[in-house]
Backbone:
């Protein structure tokens, strides 16, 4: 999968969990959360890289003033490519060429 959602357990008064012994320190929760976030990002980039060379159908969500279209493909990955027609809300088949590891990462493609 391309994304892991993680969150820190939050102790709430009045719940059974509030009375449990051996509560985990906030520092440890933060460390564990960061480890999972880094693993998630590495897995996401690996998954995106495994898609390079494949054809994907993209729903164009936006086109900037330079004619670069961006949308999501069938595998819900963000994809960017040059769109000569500059039309939004249409599907376009593209070939996935490379991963741009920007924040957030996206796949660069061509028509």
Residues:
């Amino acid at each position: 999968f391309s994304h892991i959602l993680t969150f820190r357990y939050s102790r709430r008064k009045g719940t059974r969990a509030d009375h449990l012994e051996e509560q985990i320190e906030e520092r440890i929760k933060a460390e564990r959360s960061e480890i999972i976030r880094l693993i998630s990002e590495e897995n996401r980039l690996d998954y995106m890289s495994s898609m390079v060379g494949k054809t994907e159908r993209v729903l164009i969500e936006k086109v900037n003033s330079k004619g670069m279209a961006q949308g999501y493909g069938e595998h819900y990955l963000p994809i960017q490519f040059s769109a000569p027609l500059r039309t939004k809300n249409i599907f376009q088949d593209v070939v996935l060429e490379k991963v741009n590891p920007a924040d957030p990462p996206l796949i660069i493609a061509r028509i």
